[in-house]
Structure formats: C-alpha cells, structure tokens
Design goal:
With 228 residues, this protein is an alpha+beta fold. The chain has six helices and eight strands, in the order αβββαββββααβαα. Strands 1, 2, 3, 4, 5, 6, 7 and 8 form an eight-stranded mixed sheet that branches. β4 and β5 form a beta hairpin. The longest helix is centred in the middle third of the chain and has 13 residues.
C-alpha cells in the first residue's frame, strides 16, 4: 500500500502559496486605487485596492478619515496622512468614478477613487483583528502604518529630513501583533481558520492521535532493544 503518491498537476507543483494578505506583517504593495466609501451613518473611509506580488485584492474599511458627524477620525486620518506624505503629495483631489473588479467573483463595480493616489508603491503594515458579531467571528485587516517603498522612510522622517528606515526598524517589534476582542484567543481563531473561516469559533482542545504504522511495528532504538 502506498503511503503517498506524487502529483504533477499545476496547482500541486506551483512554488509558493497565495499572496492574499491574511496575517499580520509588513507588505510591499502597489496601491492600484484608493476607494472612497461613505457609511449609512455618514462616516468616510478609504478602502485600498492593492497588488501584492501579483495578487490584486481589496483591503476594506479600516482607514476611517471622518466620523459620523463629519469630524476628523484622528487614528484613520493620521495613517492616511502618512500615505500622502510618502507619496509626495500635499493634497488629494476629489474622487472620480471608476470601474474596478472588486465585486462578487471579481465582477466590475463602479466606485469613487482617488486618482492622485493610484499606482503608488509603499510598504504597508497590517495588523489582524478578530472580534464577534451575532456570535460570528469577524476578521479585519487594520492598516497601522505606511513606509516609503525605496528606503523604508516614515512620514516623520521625510518631513524632518532625518535618517530613513529607523522608524521602520522600531516598528518591526510589533509586526506580528494580533488584536483579539470579545474574549477571543489564538486557539479559537486557529480553529476557526482551519474550519474555513465560517461559523462560531470553538477551541481546538482534542489531542492529536498517535499515528500507527503497519500493525504497530517498532522502529529505531526501540526495535533494536526488543530484538536483543
């Protein structure tokens, strides 16, 4: 009986995995188009349609630049301001309409984009955040910072003319951070991801079953001791 048979299918021999952003880290991206969205409550957010190593994807809704009452959202506006500075922009023109393949199954969707920030290369730090809503797990990619692509400079270093890259090096200590809310923990999220990111998370507490090979044969040192 064969333990494992090789496959020569294209999907099985392709080097590397998906380039979808699914974990905390710093990612080199090309911002293809920032998409402006307005919530039912009236707040304004920037979604980013990006290319990461050839994988085009949309990072939704965490750059909120205004609150429901129209006042600036200090956290989101600060991070968005970083992007403008590393892009070398003093201001951004009003959004224009464009069609992007960000609908269901990559269907074309008419959205409002910021043309001045299209095709910008940057390093983008993402921190995964997990919470619950109606007993279902919610996964969010929170953009924490931007850095200039060619020298890793922060917005502060660009404005002040200081050594580029030092702020990036300091940021690396946080690069693997994950935010857990509503009592969630890593064990629950690991189980939820393994289950296809559907349903309510449950802790994976069942111990792994010890493998048995060919009628419980003994190998290595134990087999030699029994033979003696």
């Amino acid at each position: 009986m064969s333990f494992f048979s090789t496959s020569k299918k294209a999907e099985d021999v392709k080097q590397g995995g998906s380039n979808h952003i699914t974990s905390s880290g710093v990612y080199p991206v090309t911002i293809l188009a920032p998409v402006v969205s307005v919530s039912k409550g009236g707040s304004t957010s920037i979604d980013l349609y990006v290319d990461h190593n050839g994988q085009k994807q949309i990072v939704y809704g965490n750059l909120r630049i205004t609150n429901n009452d129209g006042s600036p959202n200090k956290i989101g506006a600060k991070v968005f301001n970083q992007l403008l500075i590393i892009a070398g922009l003093d201001e951004v023109a009003d959004p224009i309409e464009a069609d992007l393949p960000i609908g269901k199954k990559e269907a074309m969707k008419t959205v409002a984009i910021l043309e001045d920030l299209c095709d910008i290369d940057a390093l983008m730090r993402v921190q995964m955040e997990y919470s619950t809503f109606n007993d279902a797990i919610q996964e969010k990619k929170v953009i924490k910072a931007f850095f200039r692509a060619d020298d890793k400079a922060t917005a502060e270093e660009i404005v002040n003319g200081t050594t580029p890259g030092e702020g990036y090096e300091r940021e690396l200590k946080y690069v693997d951070n994950i935010t857990f809310k509503d009592g969630l923990d890593q064990e629950q999220i690991t189980a939820w991801i393994a289950g296809g990111r559907t349903g309510k998370a449950t802790a994976a507490s069942t111990p792994a079953k010890k493998p048995s090979f060919g009628g419980n044969k003994r190998f290595g040192k134990a087999a030699k001791e029994e033979a003696a």
